[in-house]
Amino acid sequence: MTLPMFPVDESPGPNFAGLLQKLGLAPPVPLVGELDDIRHGTTIVAMRYADGVIMAGDRRATEGFSIAHRAIEKVFPADRHSGVSIAGAAGPALDMVRLFQLQLEHYEKLNGAALSLEGKANQLAQMIRGNLPMAMQGLAVVPIFAGYDLRRQTGRIFTYDVTGGRYEEADFHATGSGGRDARTTIKLGWTENMDRDSAVELAVQGLYEASEEDAATGGPDPVRGIYPTVATITVEGFERVGDPDVAERFRALIQHKTEAGQL
Question: What's the predicted TM-score (pTM) here?
């Protein structure tokens, strides 16, 4: 297979989405009427801590008032030092994540260096803006992007609206149907320069409280061995927290609440 050649003034450069459009491979925007039985991801959170950022998400996907999937993944590495978590219409969100990962890899291969963290956040904003026609038909995607900024030596968090508006959060954020409850819990417990264990525990608590108040947010499921996804992003890179560790933190949280008479 030979690489396509373009005139200088028409080359998409390191823009992978632009390359797909030039080659006629970009998926068309569907024109649809009423949309039923669309799977939606729900609650995701992110917060800064001493070594970088924590990202977490529950595992439930819903179709209306039904549980469509009990173990969907909502937290993904974007590249070595950044991650993206998804809320909204699951199908378009997962496609957007895959295209975003390819875009960052494509850019780095062509330029010999990775995009800055702000550049990555801007690339994702353009993809969300490109999804606006689908969002207007009910297929909205609202991710959280976070990563470790190698230039500033700190973790950073970016949030979006359906029009592609990009906003940087100072310390933490949560979105999705249970986002308000998770955000309230994190707001009450977050402190500057939290250590890793405290940050993971707070993320777990935020998702637990969201699952208690929001039917679309999945809590821990020890019977099936399904627990929310939690990942850290530091100068060492993206690392998922192991399920046994997450399960133990949920057990400790539930035991504490039981002993305190809060269940």
Answer: 0.87
